[in-house]
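hey so i finaly got around to running the thing on GGDEF domain-containing protein from Brevibacillus brevis. pasting the sequence first so u can double check i didnt mess up the copy paste, my clipboard has been acting weird all day
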Amino acid sequence: MDFLLDMKTIILSLGVGHLFTVILISAYWRHHKKDAKITSFFFAKCTQALAWLLLALRGGIPDWLSISMAYTLLFVGTSLEAIAMLMLVKAFDRGARKVYISLMALSIGGFHLLLHLYNTGAARIGFASLGIALFLVIPAYRLFKESNASLLMRMIGALYFLVFLSLTCRGVAALTSVNNMDIFTPGVAQTFSFLALYLVMILGNTGFVLLLKEQADQELIRMASLDELTGILNRRTFVARAMQCLDMYAKKKKPITLLLFDVDHFKKINDTYGHNIGDQVLRHLVDTIKGVLGEGDLFGRYGGDEFAILFPGMDEAESSAVAEQIKRTTREAAAADLPVTFTLSMGLLTVVPDRHTQLDELYIACDKALYRAKENGRDGAARVWSENREALPS
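ok and heres what it spat out for the 3d tokens, dont ask me to read them lol
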């Protein structure tokens, strides 16, 4: 079976495909010009469309357009696409920026030096193929190996890696060929590398849009789950996750501790220093307490200056020690970094839950303990003892 396809047709289809992508994305990009990753991807498609169309016109237009300009645009466009993908996974840092600026400079400069010193079709194809492959290997790796990568990210990463391999094989085949090659010269390596480029054009474009959608969905979930001011769980999400935790530890027959606390005289802080300082107090408080909590602890804002923490697997002695550490740490941090000092009042309850344990009942009990701490002079913790106390580990 003959797998050799007409190269000019494939190249022209690549140009037309990128051109239609530009037309479709332009309507979306007009309203998202400030989004760097979308802007980078849009201009990547623009330059790639023009590059492939110029390459397809080889022989009918001057060489400086179909070779020099076309390959320059191809290097720039591939680099911008790789940068957009890295931005999408938040991996385009200062180091990556330097790498891609250097790769673009070396690719464009090296290619034009090659045109003056050794201008053959095989040399051009080999250099361009290996250069473009280098642009793609970093996003391929980051998309596929990211620790929290979704299945979609891994699939797109694998796709880019496939293109990297095909371009590398094409580059090596061109540089080691005994016969001079041109971009339109038929061959197995040529055919499969262009098919891979065609595949990544279709699936890569779709994948980029799907990744944008996936990230937007994740951001909506995050916004719906977290408190806007402090960045911790809002009340609804805290309650939902705490109920799941109660069910889990009821099956394990291990203790959990609920800690409820608020800022003493918080209204006075707002009235005296203003709500801006009050917001700073809450953000500073949350950031300080996060440093004390363990990975599995649930931390949520119930509303106003009232917060709740659920400590899975923590008994009375351990939770009392953590409560004291929170109280001490927040007092020291507040004195050092804020124009106002503050203290906390806390209520604690430790139980070994069963299938009848309700979070609302635990909250009511902790709330009573919290007010007892306030009645005792504030800046302290009070504990309410559960009926399950004898079941707790000593």
